[in-house]
Amino acid sequence: MNNLRNKVQLIGNVGNTPEIYTFDSGKKKARFSIATNETYKNAKGEKVTDTQWHNVVAWGKTAELIENYVPKGKEIGVEGRLTSHSYEDKDGVKKYVTEVICNEVLLLGK
Prior knowledge:
Layout: E1 8-14, E2 19-22, E3 28-41, E4 47-59, H1 60-69, E5 75-88, E6 94-107
Parallel strand pairs: 4-6
Antiparallel strand pairs: 1-3, 1-5, 2-3, 3-4, 5-6
GO molecular function: DNA binding
Organism: Salinimicrobium oceani
Pfam family, one: SSB
């Protein structure tokens, strides 16, 4: 059960062109968002789609794969772990960020 303590799996569509950073060491980092959709019927019987956006970060070979094969709109599956941190913006307001640190990506769709 230890490997289930902080594990997330998502399937969704990439919402923006992934941002790729290459460091002096040659290591790469990819940052992008994916949208997941859940469809349900409300009390009136109307079909409602709830879209959730998730920030994703990938490193190394996974980032290279994303750089080469994952454009905006592509359906992908990601597996990783959740991480949260905070920072102060330029106005001194504390902001909180939750990200998926991706260790595996699965290319789906066409």
